[in-house]
Design goal:
single chain, about 280 residues, Metallo-beta-lactamase, Chain A, seven-stranded mixed sheet, five-stranded mixed sheet, 8 helices, about 30% helix, about 25% strand, binds zinc ion
Amino acid sequence: MRFLILLLAASLTAATPGENDWREPMKPFHVVGNVYFVGTAGLGAYLITTPQGHIVLDGGTPDDAPLIEKSIAALGFKLSDVKYLLNSHAHFDHCGGLAALKKRSGARMVASRADAQILEAGHHGSYGAGWADDFPPVHVDRIVNDGDHVQLDGTTLIAVLTPGHTKGCTTWTMQTNEAGKTYNVVFYCSTSVPGYPLVNNREYPNIVSDYEHSFEKLKKLRCDVFLANHTGFFDMRQKLARVHPGAPNPFVDPTELQRFVTASEQNFESELTKQRKAS
Ligand SMILES: [Zn+2]
């Protein structure tokens, strides 16, 4: 529901950028190992660096590509060294900037089969919820299936398909090293229900079983660092305030994914119960 409100707020204020934190510039920062935050105050976008080139996950809204490029440069890296662009899911607030980032970098766009269709069309609907958005279409160079790897130098991103929020919703996982320790990083797609009909959904008949399977899959992931495409999902600001030299990295919390999935599943189940009663 919170997502729906944010989404509606963003649609309503589309003509007046800056009225919400989706388009508010954010100082980029190091998260853990070779993972950096390059998104806006409200929307997550990530730079994963290697000596052989870089990977960028998510492109924010169509207006955010220049902010992301600036953030990459501010960290001392080059957009032209980005080899792969990934997407969590094909909603305009996470894929809108990808076409511009691809054009500027020449990187290969990687996506799940279901979301690739949306990315290439430049338009997504809402499975009967009544909202839709357009964004600059982006050509997908490589389709990933569940468990597929995107590899660069010693870094491997694994695609974990977690459909429901979109049919091709992709949670990405990787391992990174810092100070002699290995951390499992999870970039959570989304499991919110932004107004979707869950009962008798003709556009997405297996929507409920998709969400349920995704919750089960997400609960089994090993996660030390929980990151997402909405900064509120992982309390970015609160954690940043706790970053101090010598102090433990506040982004490391092996309990956070489980807590988030449990809460999200409860929201889903109560929405499902409500809709079943109403039908
Ligand atoms: Zn979404």
